[in-house]
Fold this protein.
Amino acid sequence: MSNTIDIDLGNKDNNMDLFSFHWMALFKDGSYIKQFENNIEHLFQEVKDRFDELQFFYLYNKNNFKEKFIIDLENGFIYKNIIIQDFKENKDNKKYNIRPIYKRIHRHKITIGKITEKSKEEIHYLLGFQYNDENNQNYKILFQIDSGGNFIVTGE
């Protein structure tokens, strides 16, 4: 099986150092899938194929697992670093059909000086979930996260 880890493309296309965060999917039966495990990159499609079994989805700092974003797919919340169970749902804010959203965005910052032009590649992450309310209307909550763990929240 070829993937971005085991193929040396000879360029920055497979530079895993660009990735500050990795994901892990935890399922209701206690099993999990890590994005990078045993020199294999698992694709997010493997998680999509098991959405109905998914309990938590983590996006964690590859150098420090304590720094993480956690999507609670049973209750429809996103946490930073720790899970807080103080939230109570009522019939007015019940979420149905909760599905995670995860994407990596490659950005190039170009700096033009007097003599040279420099390009720096950055990875940003879109993390969140979409859900339906009791009227089957669809909503999204998204975090855009940079390599330093800074984030902004958007929603639809």
In short: The chain is about 5% helix and 50% strand. Residues 12-155 form one domain. The helical segments are 44-48. Confidence is low (pLDDT under 50) at residues 1-13.
